Amino acid sequence: MSRVCELTGKKAMVGNNVSHAMNKTKRRFDANLIKKRFYIPEEDKWVTLKVSTSALKTINKIGMDAMLKEARAKGFYK
C-alpha cells in the first residue's frame, strides 16, 4: 500500500540533503501518516484509514462527517 493520505491525498515529496560543503544528494520527504480507526455514524460502521496527522487535526476540529464530505468532493475517499 502506498504512503498516501486517504482523505487529503498528501504524499511524499522529493528534495535534497545538503551538506555543509553544499553537496546535494536526493532524498524523500515522506508524509507523516498514521493508521487510525474511525466510526462513521451515518453508515453505522468502523473504518480504518491511513491519514496524515494534519488531517487528523482537521477531523478533530470540523468532525468526521464534514471531512468525509470534503474528501469525497475532491475524489480521495469513495
In what order do the strands lie side by side in the largest sheet?
Answer: 1-2
Estimate the helix proportion, in percent.
Answer: 25-40%
Q: Write the CATH fold name.
A: Ribosomal Protein L24e, Chain: T
Strand content: 35-45%
- How many domains is the backbone divided into? 1
Number of strands: 4
Low-confidence stretches: none
Distance separating the two termini:
17 Å
Mean pLDDT: 93
CATH architecture: Roll
User: What structural class do helix, strand and pairing data support?
Assistant: alpha+beta
The CATH class designation is: Mainly Beta
Q: What is the name of the CATH superfamily?
A: Ribosomal protein L28/L24
Query: What does the largest sheet look like?
Result: 2 strands, antiparallel
The radius of gyration over CA amounts to: 16 Å
Order of helices and strands: EEEEHH
The coarse overall form would be: elongated
Report on the structure:
The longest helix is centred in the last third of the chain and has 11 residues, at 64-74. The protein has one domain: Ribosomal Protein L24e, Chain: T, CATH 2.30.170.40. The model has no long low-confidence stretch (mean pLDDT 93). Helix 1 (53-62) packs across helix 2 (64-74). It has a two-stranded antiparallel sheet. With 78 residues, it is α+β, with helices and mostly antiparallel strands. The protein contains 2 helices and 4 strands, in the order ββββαα. Helices cover 27% and strands 36% of the residues. This is Large ribosomal subunit protein bL28. Keywords: Ribonucleoprotein, Ribosomal protein. Belongs to the bacterial ribosomal protein bL28 family. It holds the Pfam family Ribosomal_L28. GO terms for molecular function: structural constituent of ribosome.
